[in-house]
Description:
- By secondary structure, the chain is mainly α.
- The chain has helices at residues 2-6, 10-21, 25-32, 36-50, 55-67, 73-84, 88-98.
- The longest helix has 15 residues, at 36-50.
- The mean pLDDT is 85.
Amino acid sequence: FIASAYRLTPAEVRVAVATLEETTAEHVAARLGLSPATVRQRLRSLLRKTGATRRSELIGRLIDVVTGEHLPVGDRLALVRQAFGLTLAEARVAVLIASGLT
């Protein structure tokens, strides 16, 4: 879904998926066996292609694509809890961060 929605390359898709699961570009790099510079370059490309201005916004857009629509907050909480195995409090924070709050 992500690849077709934003016309991403397979390499960009791998970084996008890892970005949803890891906390930093360095963690993404370690997970994928790439250099941090390569991951940052692909993240810049992802930001450009998705129209996001920062990583938290990128994550929100990727979640929206995977779910197929903008979900009400309660549904997003359930989705995030299930997808990442988070507590309700952790999911609330994740949804707020993905919405662009700091």
